[in-house]
Amino acid sequence: MADLYGDWKRSYALLPRYFQALKTTNPGTVVKFVHKVGGPSNVHVFDRVFWAFGPSIRGFEHCRPILTVDGTHLYGKYKGVLLIAIGVDANDQIYPLAFAIVDCESIDTWGWFMDCIRKHVTQREGICVISDRHVGIMTAMNKVGGGWTEPQAFHRNCTRHQASNINTKFKSNELKLAFLSTACAAQRKRFNKGMQKIGSLNPSAKVLLESIPLSKWSLCHDGGHRYGIKTTNNSECFNGVLKRVRFLPITALVKATFFRINSYFVKHREDANKRLLEGCIWSEKVTEKLAENVKRTAHHKVTCYDARRGLYEVVTGRGNRLGSEVCRANSISSDQYVDPFYSCGEYHGSYRSSFHPVPDESYWMPWMDPGPDDGRILHLQSTHRSEAIWQGVELEPLTLRGHMKALKTFEVPEAVLTYVNNTQFRGITRLCYVPLDADLITALVERWRQETHTFHLPFSEATVTLQDVAMLLGLRISGRPVTGSSEGGWRNLCVRLLGATPSTVAVKGSKLKLTWLHDNFQNVANINSQYQLHCHVRAYLLYLFGALLFPDKTGNTVSLIYLPLLENLDQIDDISWGSGVLACLYRNLCKATKVDCIGMPLLLLQLWSWERVSIGCPDIVRSRVPRQAGVAYPLGSQVLTGVDPLACKWLRVQRGFKDHRLGLVVIRDLLDKMVELQFVWQPYTPSVVQHLSPTCVQDQAEWTVIAPLICFEMVEWHFPNRCTRQFGWQQKIPEMGSTCTRLHDISRKGDWSTNYETMHQESIAKWENRMSKIVEPGLPFCGLMSFEDEYFEWYNAITRRIITPLSQTVNDDYENHHYYYPTAADFQILTQANMVTYNTTEQMISNMPDDIPLAQYAMIEKMLNMSLDSLENTGQGHLINYQEPRPPSPPRYDFRHLAHRQQIMTQESEEAESSQRTRKKGKKRN
Length: 926
Hints:
Layout (H helix, E strand, L loop, with lengths): L1 H4 L2 H18 L4 E9 L4 E10 L1 H6 L6 E8 L7 E8 L5 E9 L4 H15 L5 E5 L3 H8 L10 E5 L1 H12 L2 H11 L4 H14 L1 H9 L2 H4 L15 H9 L8 H28 L6 H13 L4 E6 L4 E5 L6 H8 L14 H7 L34 H6 L8 E3 L12 H7 L5 H4 L8 H8 L2 E2 L4 E3 L4 E2 L3 H8 L16 H9 L8 E2 L2 E3 H8 L8 H20 L7 E3 L17 H16 L4 E3 L2 H11 L6 E5 L29 E4 L7 H9 L13 H4 L17 E5 L2 E5 L22 H4 L11 H4 L1 H8 L21 H9 L9 E4 L6 E4 L2 H23 L7 H20 L22 H30 L1
Parallel strand pairs: 3-6, 6-7, 10-17
Antiparallel strand pairs: 1-2, 2-5, 3-4, 4-5, 8-9, 11-12, 12-13, 14-15, 15-16, 18-19, 20-21, 22-23
Helix pairs in contact: 4-5, 6-7, 7-8, 8-9, 12-15, 17-23, 19-26, 20-24, 22-23, 32-33
């Protein structure tokens, strides 16, 4: 058996590496270990493990929100219990979802299992869990904040288990059958009749059942959450499937679940594909059920009272097929009353994802988990760009869409420029073309998280805040949101507000080509009226929107949805354009984590990185244009004091580029290795701010609001509480906030007449009341965060620590060869090896006998000090577990006293041997 399925002890040691290989080939797979410290050496011993396969997790979104959970005993050498969570697909077949191996069924193990499902497998609302009445399950379902209480989830009892309990308690098979009939009754009338029968058989049984909430066990009081499923037979059915493998070593058991579920997926995927090709709407069992129901309604009498309101009277009985005739007469289809979860599309979606084979053990990678350890925050990791990178997919840099180059050739009439300079867009008019760094922007996108709207750097979260928008672009934060209606009639709108009619080629839907604005509104000699001036101002602002502030993926169009907001030019400063630009940036960053191109305010993102991140930041060498005589340039560039925002610091200058020219792989890995000293938390010092436009600091009271940022269809939350060090305050563990995945699904694609002001009225109300939820100033922050800080320990558990996988090979542009480039993951492997060496040698010292040879002492000394030096020199000295109180620096081990002891022992041994030889010689003489 050991030859076939592996040794029992080795199987436990092999399990983590097998799971790592499985996660590598099957993205989205979740594995969570729990160890306990035991034994005389305080070693980590296996306690329990949870796993759920990625294809099952993705496919469960297409199943009904229902789970049956159960446990079954293992028969192997070390015993234990296998916990199972089973769903139900569209064809009423079992859908294996999650597993765990624990030592026994208890409050602790069931609570942990249910927590793992809620945190790492599904966050669906309204999910129904059917189980027996084990105290561990009941406790987990009633735990406040665990995600399983109503209305987040609903718990229902298995009627078969409850009937068995009643039979055990009251010793009556007739009572058991009466309970089953009553519990399964779909009508209140039949339920009440059944309860009367139970009361006549045994009044105590009726009192007992009435003490349990009826929704827990009665089908007609369930509210539809069970979907007609009354027992945990699905879980026990799969337990029967695994019966023959429950005596195997643990790794072989896990492999068995992998191969069995894969065979399920292959079989049902083929069945679903076949039904789709045949044009079937519903799954096979549902189709049969519908046919059966139609047959049964042949003798029902249907009387219509109000067809519009759907008011009918149905009398069951025998007679003509009046029911069918009434349905045909009123053109009523039964399809509209069938839940979509029973459709062939959902059936196919449940099994769409494929399992991938796990390679031979000789190809497994070393154990390395990039995180997160706690998946409650980054619950979208399985679909994130970084997951594909870790699995070895070679992704190219993002394609950047923009139209900034045209700014160099757009000649603005002086009257128009004078008018715009009196608005909040004065600083924007000073901006010009800056070459964008696709490698740097792509590396930042790989660290952007939709769940938090922040960049997850190795040491903390950081993000582009309203403060950055105000400082870099000089846009207002205060004001009403950027929203309105996409009512259509775009060409007529252009005639009315731009004074010109674009050609059919220039307008496509709500998109207007920037080239049309460029050709018709630049360098106009004569502007003879106020109306013409306003038309040219609107055209110029619209051009700035398409080129800089709100660019789209086409790179050469601008949406006319912004044009109605420019109708009254006297009120454009009353709009919070800064929050709209930031909402656009957030939305496009979230999209870019899943696609291969990006269109957004890329200049804002790149300048934010240059101000704060030393990696990829160029040096300002010199100004490219002559300076005006008598004008001060305190920031060393073309920034005019009191006029420009900080973005002008990087424009019209010659920049010297450094490390980021090495390419995406190197930039990505440099961010993996980044330390806190390489990030500037507060670049906007008083000495810088005093030279900027007053608009930059006009709304500083609103920089730390926790509020939704709105830009038509885009609603993105601003969470400055996740990066308070950017405002000079100490960082605490932030409260969990949702960025609402549903809002990210809203787009303007195919939209012709949506009133976003009505659609997002709740979010607009929160924006208008934004000052009621603001991050209060905390304790001043200075220096670096300690590795023992509570926030750092929390962040290290919830973040994606490493993006770049092991052992990357980089193509050198200057030499026609490849060379090995060690990544942060490689350094992590070496760090783990050094930690093992350090801990092992330290343990050897504590248990070292006095008579050990001096040569072994010297070898241990060298190993210990080399591992300690390596940890210190790579900045990982904080990983060493020190005794309290902690010394100021890692301890150095000196073996001179041991060597002296060895010398004394050697000298005493030599004297004893000499004395013994002398005595022997004396005896021979005698």
